[in-house]
Amino acid sequence: MDEFEYLEDLNDEKTRSFIEKENRKTEEKLGKRAKELYPRLLEIYNEPYILGMFAYDENEPVILLYGEKNQVLLGNKVIYISPKDYVASSVWKVYNSKEIGVSVEKKGSDKITTFLISPDGKTTELGEMVESPFYFKRELCYIKSYRYSPPPDGGEYPADRVFCGNEIVYGKDLKPGEFVSIRTFGDFITLIRSKGWRYSELYAGEGFDSLKKIDEGEVIDVIDYIQGNLIYQKNDSVHLDKKKIIKSDYPILGVSSLKETLAVEVIKDYRTPLLFYSINGDKVGEEIHDNIQFMDSEGHSLFMVETSFNYKFKVSRRVKEKSETIMQYGNYDVKVTDIYVKGDVLLHGFLLSKSNNPKGVIVYGYGGFRISLLPSFPMFTRILLDEGYSVLITNLRGGYENGEEWHKAGMLLNKKNVFKDFSEFLRLVKSLGGKTIAMGGSNGGLLVGATENEYPELIDCAVIGHPVLDMLRYDKLYVGKYWVEEYGDPNDPKYRDYLLSYSPYHNLKKELPKTFVYTGINDDRVHPAHALKYAAKSEKLGNDVMLFVNDSGHAIADPESEAREYSYVIAFIEECK
């Protein structure tokens, strides 16, 4: 029996009382310094930041800017401004239309509401949890996600359904945790049915009732449909219909079609160069880039949004080997050093520093869901870097920095490899006499929690944000069923014992390092109960643990919520002795 299971009910008066008590304690210890830090952090989070981009036509991109001016731009023209208390979180290319899709959410909640924006500025609401609007045979269609209740056809959830008009046209046989993506080319439709983050089935046809399976395997994405030929990516290769025309030696992050050529973004030496190929698969060029975050093409124009550790973003348009910068923002002078560590495998990290004798090293990791930690402009860590701390960003198994095999080596029954990798970086910092602050959020919170239990001697202080910590009940909390393909099903004996063996919540022990746990009461992706239960149990064991429950969600919150959250994080790190 789990004595803290009541904390899963956020409406329980005992849960509310627990949150209020813990926030008061944290406020007493960190509140004064947090208030001092807040104005500078608010300034940082009010700076523009690009959350999405696609090519509207050959001359202009659509750009979603986050920050004080949370708005959508068509070229230089503002076409949408988020209403008060809401944040625009996604922009959608509406296929077979000149309309633009915009999704908004309240304080970072995953419960999005999507709108259609016409070229003349008219706004039409499509509804809650609607994604990827498109037109097919002149009828408006979209994908609707059922994460919190069953779909109208009575199927299990969470799952997707495809609507055209008011009718469900696809998805009745989708299983919980499966999701779809769609792209149309006139009256030709392609649909990718994904199971977790790595296995997909590609279908195509002239209608939903005539879809035929084209291919299946790992990491499939549709690129283009030219003169009856379908071009698609499958793992680290590109196919023209079923013929493999490109086999990359590096992990592919994305491909854009420029009609006569293909632009292929890969990960090479932990950066993202562009490789250019003819439609026949012959390599014709290469460009160096630090980190391309978004890339999309229309006709012969290739639009890119890129970032690095030294500038926040640059938007550019490339036409026939000539590039022009459309927009650029933010410069930061920080020393970046590539670090290599030999563990079970050769590991890489980025060490960011402005001091030769740092007060401490924030060792940051994630290690899961094929997410790569690549060069990215420092946000709240700018304050810590300016104060004399260093930041070590770690590339661990479970990510995608070295391809799908690297991901597989850190998922399911290989998950402990990720904690071992993280410990190697902590051990390196310790061996050099440094103070280690282990930090991670979401799946990275699981990483820090598990590593702290297994290697407490390597950590001086730990920061665990919006975490997944109860590995035996994660699938029962909010949208946890989506993660079964990554972690393994706790109801399956094949995985249950393994999950139990590293579950941070179940393996809590006494005398752990000083720990700061934070979550958001509006987080409807990772249930706040993970953090609440962990803090309550750790506190009962006598550990020095602090909990902060913000009014934020899991993903993009408003600048005020983010600044408030990280003011307490930094205040805690400064207190780490």
UniProtKB/TrEMBL annotation:
Domain Peptidase S9 prolyl oligopeptidase catalytic: 382-576
GO biological process terms, semicolon-separated: proteolysis
GO cellular component terms given for this protein: cytosol
Pfam families given in the database record: Peptidase_S9 (PF00326)
InterPro entries for this protein: AB_hydrolase_fold, Peptidase_S9_cat, Peptidase_S9A, Prolyl_oligopep/macrocyclase
EC number(s) on file: 3.4.21.26
GO function terms (MF aspect): oligopeptidase activity; serine-type endopeptidase activity
Family matches, as SUPFAM superfamilies: alpha/beta-Hydrolases, Peptidase/esterase 'gauge' domain
Record's catalysed reaction(s): Hydrolysis of Pro-|-Xaa >> Ala-|-Xaa in oligopeptides
UniProt superkingdom: Archaea
This protein's name: prolyl oligopeptidase
Protein species of origin: Acidianus infernus
